[in-house]
Amino acid sequence: MRVTVLGCGLVGHAIAADLATRGRFMVTAVDREVGRLARVAGLERVRTEVANLANAGELARVVADADLVVGAVPGFMGWATVQRALELGKPVVDISFFPEDPFSLDELARSRGLPAFVDCGVAPGCSNLLAGWATRRLDTVERFVCYVGGLPVVRTWPWEYKAPFSPADVLEEYTRPARFVERGTLVTKPALTDPELVEFEGVGSLEAFNTDGLRSLLRTLAVPDMVEKTLRYPGYLEKVLVLRESGFLSTEPLRFGDTEVTPLALTSRLLLPLWHLGPDDEDVTLMRVVAEGRRGEARVRLRWELFDRYDRASRTASMARTTGYTCTAVVRLWASGRLPQTGVVPLELLGQQEGIAAWILADLAERNVRFEEREELLEGT
């Protein structure tokens, strides 16, 4: 089967390599920068293409012979890229986490008889999968919470942070309003609100704050209390708040003589060398997912924990592993014929299918991405 991977950055290269070496697909890896293609250029069953994926004609050229397209472009390009791939008659598995509503592409995908599996990363992605699985394992889910973050092992002043994606995509999360559910009501607050300290074994105290991570869960699951929070080292939140409240994350252009620039673009450019996660920068990915509800008369808590590390042998970042290998698991499932859906399909809908969540978690475990699960009865049962 022929798979074209659009975008060969930190995560895209891990997807291409995994599909070629473990999935035995014929892979075409595409990026506009030759340097990004170098990490997969020598692999068997991988060919590389240089293309500007923002150009509709070039995109059509590189996916022409694909049986399936993987979208791993920056978020600001994601929606248009998925739309174009569907228009070209290609099923899509996407990790671009674009800000637009993915269900706005549902009618297009259904009219073509195609699936568009969206948000197929770690969070959103695995978090959605577990949320859907919880609704299958419990009679009712009353509360869902996800804490998640990717962090560098070495904490370097002033930010103590490295971005696994482009700084612009990370900063966009800090300006987009955060949506969550309280007592059955949709609530919207600014991002970075409701900070709290959360303890993780082996790491210690981390800051957690609101970001808009629930995404499709707000539409697909009727859970009365749901929230997702981002994790960072303590002290990080205050620095980002200073940037945001001082106007450095604004998208309103400023004029300097004959030149216009947005503060966000300038901030992103300045942060790029400080936040760049190099191939030898070790990172960790932490996630805690909790679902509480009822099974019969019993009140039950399901809890999953992930603590994943940089892979020194393959020099693959943890965020690339946890995001990329979730994506490739979905590709393999689709290729096996076990995912017959058409339309836009977020992973919580897969989690509600018999055996799918367990299969994906087992596939991740084969790559040493392991979720520890615990189930317990709550008081008041």
Characterise this structure.
With 381 residues, this protein is of the alpha/beta class. It folds into two domains: 2-121 and 319-366, 3-Layer(aba) Sandwich (Rossmann fold), CATH 3.40.50; 126-309, Dihydrodipicolinate Reductase, domain 2 (2-Layer Sandwich). Helices cover 34% and strands 29% of the residues. The protein has helices at residues 10-21, 34-41, 56-63, 75-87, 106-112, 126-137, 167-175, 217-220, 236-245, 263-275, 318-336, 347-351, 356-366, and strands at residues 2-6, 26-31, 46-50, 68-71, 92-94, 115-118, 140-152, 178-182, 185-189, 196-200, 204-210, 225-232, 254-256, 259-261, 283-295, 298-309, 343-346, 371-377. The strands form four sheets. The chain has a seven-stranded parallel sheet, sandwiched between helices. A seven-stranded mixed sheet has the order 10-11-12-7-15-16-18, with helices on one face. Helix 1 packs parallel to helix 2 and helix 1 (10-21) packs across helix 11 (318-336). The radius of gyration is 20 Å and the shape is globular.
The CATH homologous superfamily of the largest domain is named Dihydrodipicolinate Reductase, domain 2
Question: What percentage of the residues does DSSP assign to strands (E)?
Answer: 25-35%
Percentage of helical residues?
25-40%
CATH class of the largest domain: Alpha Beta
Architecture of the largest domain, CATH level 2? 2-Layer Sandwich
Into how many domains do the coordinates divide? 2
The chain-level structural class is: alpha/beta
- What integer value in Å does the Rg equal? 20 Å
Strand tally, please?
18
Number of helices: 13
Q: What does the overall shape look like?
A: globular
Query: Which regions are unreliable across 5 or more consecutive residues at pLDDT < 50?
Result: none
Main sheet, how many strands, which sense, barrel? 7 strands, parallel
- Average the pLDDT over all residues and give the rounded result: 95
